[in-house]
Amino acid sequence: MRPGVGSATPFAESSPASSTAVSVILVGGGKAQLSKPAVARDLYVSPQFAQRRARAEASGVPWFVVSGRWGLLHPDDLLAPYSFSFAQQSLNYRRAWGRFVAEQLCLFSSVGRGDVVEICAGAAYTSALTAPIGYLGALIRRETAGASDSGDEPR
Predict the structure, then answer these.
(1) Share of the chain above pLDDT 70, in %
(2) pLDDT, tens only, 5-31
(3) Which of residues 31 and 99 earns the better pLDDT score?
(4) Helix, coil or strand: residue 38
(5) 87 alpha carbon, distance to own chain's centre
(6) Which of 150, 145, 132, 148 is nearest to 16 (CA)?
(7) Is 98 left (phi over 0), alpha (psi -120 to 50) or beta?
(8) Backbone angles phi, psi at 66, to 5 degrees
(9) CA 119-104-95 angle, 5° bins
(10) Fewest C-beta in 10 Å: which of 5, 57, 92, 103?
């Protein structure tokens, strides 16, 4: 438990229909990538990523890309194309990755009790992130529009 977070309950309830304003948005990367290095916002090129990115940018709240290989990425982080299947990793890897991303989120956006984190990613990423982010006291809102995993999951 983080200092200053006063609940013995380790998991916050997820609330897809909550009226609370979103504090940060996490957008899942995907298989379709440019063939040369680019910033994270431009590296992933699937139509689903483009839609999620546009929605995140239009929201006006901070947003990050989540990568199964690299964790939490600022949209301006430069990286090379890569091949990595998050879904094929062990359960232990996915659990550790979820905790790692939650810790990164604390460092870069001070997410904690009462904040709302919107996850715009496929089921594997969402599943790995739900408990660790909930443990921070944040509520989780899952993307509802266009939440299909078809072809854009996960890397």
Answers:
(1) 80
(2) 333 333 334 444 345 789 999 999 988
(3) 99
(4) strand
(5) 15
(6) 145
(7) alpha
(8) -110, 130
(9) 65
(10) 92
d(CA 22, CA 116): 5
Q: What is the pLDDT of residues 47-56, one digit of tens each?
A: 999 999 999 9
DSSP state at residue 90: -
Cβ contact 38:80 at 8 Å: no
Buried b (16+ CB within 10 A) or exposed e, 3-32: eeeeeeeeebebeeeeeeebbbbbbbbbbb
Quick check: 78 pLDDT over 50? yes
Higher-confidence residue of 112 and 52: namely 52
H or E element: which one contains 72?
strand 71-73
Question: What is the H or E stretch that residue 39 is in?
Answer: strand 38-39
Prediction pTM value:
0.81
Chain centroid to Cα 89, Å, comes to 17
Query: Tell me, what's the pLDDT at 145?
Result: 53
Using CA atoms, how far residue 52 sits from 13, 26, 27, 91, in Å, is 24, 9, 7, 26
